[in-house]
Specification:
elongated; 6 strands; four-stranded antiparallel beta sheet; alpha+beta; single chain; 321 residues; 13 helices; two-stranded parallel sheet
Length: 321
């Protein structure tokens, strides 16, 4: 199953200066957006109140969200828990003195739970408040730090793996494109001010894994063609590698995008952030696999010699006449 001819010869590397220039421009723009607008961190990172609610009969998360908004509780995150009669509500309380707890550090959960109960019971008298918790901003800050650390370790681990499996230049090219993919994905999220919560963080880590998978396929073909070609001109080999894997790259991206679109439309609001971030990351990762990774390899000077198996010299043979 192929969209493009396996032996097609589209000269992708002819526009390498343009594609690399666009990639650098997008990275700079993303860094500027993250520095000026930052990310719209959700309750997982900023802290807030979590309240569990149970109903006698089934209820939809949309009805719960509407009741809260009508009752004056805006921007609440509502998720179903273990069925159709239990929901989890998370939100950041408004800056109101009546909610101030001891020493003004934590809000009074009982007062907040009462207001939530009033808002919900106005439309559904069978709403009952269950567990209630408060996540302080210090916990959110720790989660942010852990998320950044996780992303860095994933990228470094990928670089080490590629260094061992291929060669140093491949690891450098992969690291550069992975940083590009992550930065541009985060830049788009910052631009549209999409809420950044733990599900979005998980999707960013998934984007890193998905993106490197595309690049490894191209890298494998590059190594194969270098070793099998007698006249291994680097630019020609890299271009042939992109062309021969193009159908696989497009088909994989297309069907993964279809799965993410289905998750977005039918999975409910709780997974919208994950699905949208994956869609953005798939697009960026696919384009970087075609237009960015190979030009970086060419610029680094990859050659057939770098990929040929190293044979150990035999001292016994060297002593023979």
């Amino acid at each position: 199953m192929e969209i493009f001819n396996h032996n097609s010869n589209i000269h992708f590397l002819r526009i390498r200066k343009f594609s690399i220039g666009i990639a650098v421009l997008l990275m700079v723009a993303s860094i500027a957006l993250l520095a000026t607008r930052s990310l719209n961190y959700g309750l997982d990172f900023t802290g807030g109140v979590r309240i569990g609610v149970t109903y006698d009969k089934a209820v939809s998360t949309e009805d719960v969200r509407t009741a809260l908004t009508t009752g004056g509780i805006d921007n609440a995150v509502v998720q179903s828990v273990g069925g159709t009669r239990e929901v989890d509500i998370r939100f950041q309380p408004k800056d109101d003195k009546k909610y101030a707890g001891p020493e003004g550090k934590a809000p009074n959960l009982d007062l907040i739970a009462n207001d939530v109960a009033k808002a919900l019971q106005a439309s559904r008298p069978d709403a009952k408040i269950g567990s209630r918790d408060y996540v302080g901003p210090q916990v959110g800050e720790q989660l942010r730090s852990d998320g950044v650390t996780a992303a860095i370790f994933v990228i470094i681990g990928i670089g080490i793996y590629l260094w061992i499996r291929f060669e140093r230049r491949f690891a450098i090219a992969a690291l550069a494109t992975e940083v590009h993919d992550v930065l541009v994905t985060l830049g788009v999220i910052s631009l549209v001010q999409r809420e950044f919560d733990l599900t979005v963080l998980a999707s960013v880590l998934a984007v890193i894994g998905y993106s490197i998978n595309d690049k490894v396929v191209v890298f494998d073909r590059i190594r194969e063609l270098f070793r099998s070609s007698r006249k291994a001109d680097p630019e020609e080999i890299l271009n042939r590698s992109i062309n021969s894997t193009l159908s696989r790259t497009i088909i994989t991206s297309l069907f993964t995008s279809i799965a993410m679109a289905a998750l977005f439309f039918f999975g409910g609001p709780s997974v919208h952030g994950f699905a949208i971030t994956m869609l953005i990351g798939i697009l960026i990762g696919t384009l970087s696999s075609i237009f960015v990774a190979s030009p970086i390899l060419l610029w680094l000077g990859v050659s057939k010699k770098d990929l040929m198996p190293v044979t150990k010299e035999n001292p016994e043979l060297a002593r023979r006449p």
